[in-house]
Amino acid sequence: MTTEKRTSLSVRKLKRSGGYFDLETKTNELEVLEKQLHDPNFWQDQAKARRVNKNISLLRDEIAQIDRLDQLKGDLETYLLLLDEDFSESLFLEAVEHLSESQIYADKAEIECLLSEKYDHNDAIFSIHAGAGGTEAMDWAQMLLRMYSRWAEKNKFGFVVVDMLYGEEAGIKSVTVEVTGNYAFGLLKAEIGIHRLVRISPFNAQGKRQTSFASVFVYPEIDDAIEVEIEAKELKIDTYRSSGAGGQHVNTTDSAVRITHLPTNIVVSCQNERSQIQNREKAMAMLKSRLYQYYEEQREKEKRSVESTKSDIGWGNQIRSYVFQPYQMVKDHRTSYECGNMDKVMDGDLDGFIYAWLRGEAQKRA
Q: What is the pTM (predicted TM-score) of this model?
């Protein structure tokens, strides 16, 4: 495909993406919210103030993106016109540079247009659990944790570990992370499922290839305004000593908190805060998110609860395979999207996999 044809294609994609955004409506919404900031009583309700500030930030980002899309569309149309009237090598090279930037931005805008479900714009509570494979699987779970932390960094998301259980020899048995940022849940829900690793195990003295599994699950973090009734008698609250890899920063008091909701058997835990009170508050917020989603599914008479989407962490259930040997390939079995650059993927380059799944789900809904 020639550069001019690719430029024309990007212009059409930018036009389609721009059609999903109503700049006038969003600008009006932003003006209404910003007026609330000048109310002398605005900060008396801290929860409401946080919600308003979050919505303001979201609208500002969306408006900035619309402006950027319009600018890119205008630039590409100008390049097409100039190249058609008077072709020059310097102008051509300049257009190619802008084309690559525009394609990346247009793809991102297109995907965000697909994230229109109820909780897609929310922050996410993200967990990884080691499965079949023993120490090898625990090491694989830790590799996935690093991969997702790098992905979050590239996408400018907050990434805070709130609870972690280390393996006896190496790696981690499980980890829970709070991922904050616009569309965090909408993007990360593409990663829910079993992830399979094939490599020559560093824990096998005979140097044999080994297959390991780890599961990934994601919940949307629910806004503080949502009312979820939780009675004290329904809770079992345990405190324990925070675990760590060692060193001077390991917490030596019983400040970690684990809360079990007895009617549903939902368990949450937090150990990253400085005090038991802070850990308890964070764990209660996580429990609230889990329970809200659970009860909403019950009200909608869905046949399964939030946990039912989890499969056995083993053979036959994987959504994606990461093969290190005898060749290098990462393949998503739901979309057939694949990448042969293993280092790139493990360094957090997951957007191709996420975008392919979101586009596939959008086609199914259509």
A: 0.69
